Amino acid sequence: MHPAMRLFDRYALRELIVPFGMGLLVFTMLMLGNVLYLTLRLIISRRAPAGLVIQYLLLKAPYVVSLAFPVAMVLAVSLAVNRLTRDFELPAIRPSGVPLWRAFSPFFLVGVWASLFTLWLNERVVPGANHASMQIVRHLMLEQPVPLLEANKFLRGGPDVYFYVKEVDPKASALRGVLIYRLRDGFPEVITAKKATYIKAARIWVLYDGFVHRFDREGRLLAEAPFETLELNLGETIEAFFSSVKTPEEMSSSELAKQIELLSKGGLSTEELEVAYHFKFAIPAACFVFALCAAPLSMHFAKAGSFGGVLLAVALVFVYYCLMQWARALGAEGILPPAVAAWSQNLLFALIGIGLVLWHERRG
């Protein structure tokens, strides 16, 4: 490697680190403030102690950091490239025949590192921390057990027993679109019901209008029996069920894949959960995609100054997250395939970045 390029790489990384760190800190604080605001009514109504609130925010921090990483990445790259262009550092190395992709390589490598770190965070730290934080919320809300449940949530009812609830009807204190997976004598059994109620005094679940499916160990259907009502005593209190509720944000990708497989066996729709599964990889990848797109765009608009760099970063994040929410909604409704819904905005921004690099290369 030419000594001049080593010097440029160090300078580029130095320009990147400070805005990345500041962006990560600012966006993490802003999003934690939003998390606190969303739970403020519950905290006040239940008179939660300050220590519990602080514990809740600390547990939410890994999830918030994983969302802030892509935002900090686009801000840092936009400001760093903007500065290097205005100070003629980038234009100075171009006449010596250095390809633009090589000049941008420090930003791309940091983008790859940020993506891998965010993926590790999402798989190893975020699920457990999110589950612990939601346990605090569920504990505060336990006075209203049935309304506590939300749509598309999983519950573990003891060893080898799983619940899935599609919808909740708080007025009727009923659950709708219920699936129960359990092992009986070593054989899988899937129970589906249109409606379920919990009788707290007797600790039993009453299921209405459903089917019992029994499978062999290879997953082949052995028997199917319809029922109008079915009483189940799983030996658990409603509080024990609530302690096992898990949303997709509280699961690793492998856990979520297992739940999707269970629901598919029961014939239930899994589009929304499949979209959540693909987003577990697509959001970390956004760190690299933002670096790929923001670098050539920032060089193109460098004349606008540092304010232009910040404005560009905000615009990129706004457009990306608007597209992401639209795609997520379309994927959950089955209009887009789950993989397309999760990865389409990454593909679009990556193509824009590659196209701009090639365009600048042709211009010289």
* Class computed from helices, strands and strand pairing: alpha+beta
In order across it, which strands form the biggest sheet? 1-2-3-4-5-6
**Average pLDDT metric:** 86
Per the principal axes of the C-alpha atoms, what is the gross shape?
elongated
DSSP strand count: 6
Major sheet: 6 strands, antiparallel
Number of helices: 11
Uncertain runs are: 143-148
Number of domains: 2
Q: Report helical residue fraction.
A: 55-70%
Could you give the topology of this structure?
Blueprint: H1 3-45, H2 50-86, H3 89-93, H4 100-103, H5 105-140, H6 145-148, E1 153-156, E2 161-169, E3 174-184, E4 187-199, E5 204-215, E6 221-232, H7 238-242, H8 253-265, H9 271-300, H10 305-332, H11 338-363
Antiparallel strand pairs: 1-2, 2-3, 3-4, 4-5, 5-6
Structure description:
It contains eleven helices and six strands. It has two domains: 3-140 and 274-363, no CATH class; 150-244. It starts with a helix and ends with a helix. The longest helix has 43 residues, at 3-45. It has 364 residues and is of the alpha+beta class. A six-stranded antiparallel beta sheet has the order 1-2-3-4-5-6.
Structure at a glance:
The protein is of the alpha+beta class and 364 residues long.
Task: Give the key terms.
about 375 residues; alpha+beta; 2 domains; six-stranded antiparallel β-sheet; 6 strands; about 65% helix; about 15% strand
